[in-house]
Amino acid sequence: QVQFVESGGGLVQAGGSLRLSCAASGFTFRINTIGWYRQAPGNQRELVATITNDGSTSYADSVKGRFTISRDNAKNTAYLQMNSLKPEDTAVYYCNAIRVVTGTPFPSWGQGTQVTVSS
Q: By CB distance 3.0 to 4.6 Å, which of 45, 54, 63, 71 could disulfide with 39?
């Protein structure tokens, strides 16, 4: 079945950096767009960054210029490099794939990884 395992979160001071990893399985990783999402307490889950199968990237305005998404198709793994972190980046971060047929994420989500940025 489809699985996502996120890792790399932690507690960091404002201005610091973290690199998140997402190990995916159960589908053809290389053909799907991969997305990183985040959800802060009391907020809806929001899309932070995406990377297509050919490496094109897009970012939410709130993270543009600070976050970089990448992927390694040989390892079925996606990454999110987060620099210049701000307290408002505090959230649980998730990854998922955009299904080719429906254009929507898979219904199964991983446990996420907590990112906490202190001021």
A: 45
pLDDT tens-digit map of 3-15: 999 999 999 999 9
CA proximity to 79, closest of 18, 28, 2: 18
CA distance 111 to 119: 26
- For residue 96, CA distances in Å to 23, 80, 119 come to 10, 13, 29
Torsion of CA 103, 112, 45, 56, to 10 degrees: -40
Structure tokens, 52: 């297509």
Name the one residue in this structure whose structure tokens are 């299904």. Answer: 99
Contact 78, 95 (CB under 8 A): yes
Return the pLDDT at 1.
93
Could you report the per-residue pLDDT of 73-115, keeping only the tens digit for each? Answer: 999 999 999 999 999 999 999 999 998 888 899 999 999 999 9
